[in-house]
Amino acid sequence: MSLPPTFVEGFHYEDQVRRMEYRQLGKTHMLVSKISIGGGTLCDMAYGILDFDEAKRTVIEALRRGINYIDTAVYYGEGQSESNIGKILKEVPREAYYIATKTCRFERAGPNQFDFGYERTIKSVDESMKRLGVDYIDLYQLHDVEFADNIDEVINGAFKACLELKQMGKIRAIGINGYPLSVLKEGICKGDGKLDTVLTYSRYVLTDDSLLEYLPFFNDMNVGVICAAVQAMGLLTNNGPQAWHPANDELKAIAAEASEFCKSNEVQLGKLAAYHSMNIPGKVGTFLMGMEKMEYLNHNLSAMLDGLNVKEMNVYKTLMNSVFSKVKKEIQHWEGFEVSRYRNEKKTWQKH
Questions:
Q1: How far is CA 250 from each of CA 147, 246, 320, 325, 326, rounded to the nearest angstrom?
Q2: For residue 20, what pLDDT is reported?
Q3: Given this model, what pLDDT does residue 33 score?
Q4: d(CA 331, CA 316)
Q5: What residue stretches are annotated with the NADP-dependent oxidoreductase domain (predicted)?
Q6: Which of 30, 185, 222, 244 is in the most buried spot, having the most CB atoms within 10 Å?
Q7: How many domains does the chain have?
Q8: Is residue 346 domain-resident?
Q9: pTM over 0.90
Q10: How much is the pLDDT for 247?
Q11: Burial class of 302 by CB neighbour count within 10 A (0 to 12, 13 to 18, 19+)
C-alpha cells in the first residue's frame, strides 16, 4: 500500500502504515484510515472514569500505526474529550492526523443541551479549536440533528454558520450526524450539495442492518459515510451495555445471550462486531471505534487486518444463525426513544 498524505517520517511505523487501508472520504480533502478513533470514550462521560495515561499511550500508538482520523464532540464530557485529545495531540505532528468535532449539542442534561442557532455555532468553533489546540478543524459536524424542532432550523442556523466558517478557513468540511436515517437524508437533501459527510451510528451492526436501505442514497450524493459505534455503544461487547443504554429489554437480552456465548468460548464479541460492520456491502469511508485501551486497539486492528480466525468465525456464524436471527425489525433499534424523552422534559422546562 502506498503512503497517505498524513504519513510523517520519524513518527509513523512505516511498515504498519503500508498495511493500513485508506479511503477517500466523499468529496473532502481527507484520505482516511479504514478504522478511526471515536472520542466518546476519551472522557468520563458515559463509559466510566478514563485512565488518561493509558488512553494517551493508546491514541498515540494508534496514530503511529496509521490510523489518521479522530472524531469527537464538545458534548462528550462537556468539553473533556476535546481537552484530553488536545493534550494528547501536543505530541503528534499536525500533518499526521485529521480532526473532526461537532456543534449543536453541548450539555448532558437541562435546557441548554442543544443550540442549533447561527450565533452559538460561530462561537463554539473557537471554543473547540482552543480545547483541541488546533488552528483549523478538518470536519465540523451538526450533532444529533433529530433533536431540533425540524431540519430547517438546523439548515437556516448552524449549517449557515458552518458555510461561513468554511469560507473563513476555520473548518475544511461540513458534516451531519444523528440516529434516525430519514432525518439525515432530509438534511442532506436540504443542504444543497454542500454537506460533505454523514455520520451514522449503530446502524450496520450485528443487530441492525437498516443502513443498507440508505447507503445507496448517501453514495449517490457523494457524501463521505462515517460508521460509528460498531459495537452499538457497548451493547455488542463481552462487558455488555451501560445502565443508560437506550435499547429495549428484548434486544438487550439477545445481546446478553451472544455475550455469554462468546465468553464461554473465550472470544471477544466486540471483535466480531467490528468485523461484521467493516464488511458492510457498500461504500463507507471509515469506521469509528472507541480505543481508549490498548486491548481495544489491538482487537480492532486485528479484525480489520487479519479478519477472524477459525474459532472466531465459527462463533460468529453460530451467533448469526442462532442468536441474532431472533432480532425482529421492530426491536432492532431504539429510534425515537431519546427524542421523545427530551421533548417531554423540554415541556417541563418551558412551564418553569
A1: 25, 12, 17, 13, 10
A2: 97
A3: 98
A4: 21
A5: 35-313
A6: 30
A7: 1
A8: yes
A9: yes
A10: 96
A11: middle
Residue 5: inside a domain: no
Q: DSSP letter string over 127-186? A: HHHHHHT-S-BSEEEE--GGGSS-HHHHIIIIIHHHHHHHHHTSBS-EEEEES-HHHHHH
What count of Cα atoms within 13 Å lies in the side-chain half-sphere of residue 40?
Answer: 17
DSSP 233: T
pLDDT < 50 stretches in the chain: none
**Helix (H/G/I), strand (E/B), else coil: 35:** strand
CA angle 278, 31, 7 (to 5 degrees): 110
What's residue 48's pLDDT?
82
Instruction: Decide: helix, strand or coil at residue 219.
Output: helix
Identify the CA nearest to 315 among candidates 264, 250, 351, 240.
Answer: 264
User: Is 232 within the bounds of a domain?
Assistant: yes
- Considering the candidates 76, 201, 204, 214, report the single residue annotated as catalytic: 76
Assigned domain for 9 exists: no
Q: Is the dihedral of CA 267, 270, 274, 276 positive or negative?
A: positive
What residue spans of the chain are helical by DSSP H? Answer: 14-19, 52-64, 80-89, 118-132, 151-154, 160-168, 181-190, 211-220, 249-264, 269-278, 294-305, 310-322, 337-351
pLDDT at 352: 62
Identify the CA nearest to 101 among candidates 109, 156, 118, 84. 84
Q: Which three cell numbers stand for residue 56?
A: 494517551
> Residue 254 belongs to what domain range?
14-351
Please give the pLDDT value at position 294.
Answer: 96
Where residue 271 sits, what CATH number does that domain have? 3.20.20.100
Which tens digits make up the pLDDT trace of 247-293?
Answer: 999 999 999 999 999 999 999 999 999 999 999 999 999 999 999 99
Quick check: is 316 catalytic? no
